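Weekly modeling sync, notes
Attendees: S.R. (lead), two postdocs, one rotation student

Agenda item 3: backlog of single-chain predictions. S.R. asked that every request posted to the team notebook include the full sequence so nobody has to chase files. The rotation student volunteered to paste the first one in as an example of the format we agreed on. Action items at the bottom.

Example entry:
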Amino acid sequence: MRFDSFYTNIVEKDEHKKSSEYRKLSPKMKKAVDEIFKKMDSNSSDFINSFERNLAFVSKKHKVTEKELMTYFEKEMLTIGK
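Predicted structure, as returned to the notebook:
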């Protein structure tokens, strides 16, 4: 394994937990978001196709709405450039 790939894996793990949007979430929403990121990490090659399916599954499992989860991800995308 090359050092740069090893280093990238360390930096990216749980990086989403440091954002201000994540810290504003309820504990239930945090668990849902964490699970989505975990699923996306395990299946990163098919990210686009599996995102909506994972979003629906996780929203039902954690009893949060898909709209709430999408709102979180939209806010995160807007704050990345800031």
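Discussion: group reviewed the output briefly. Confidence is low (pLDDT under 50) at residues 6-11.
Action items: rotation student to repeat for the remaining queue; S.R. to check formatting next week.
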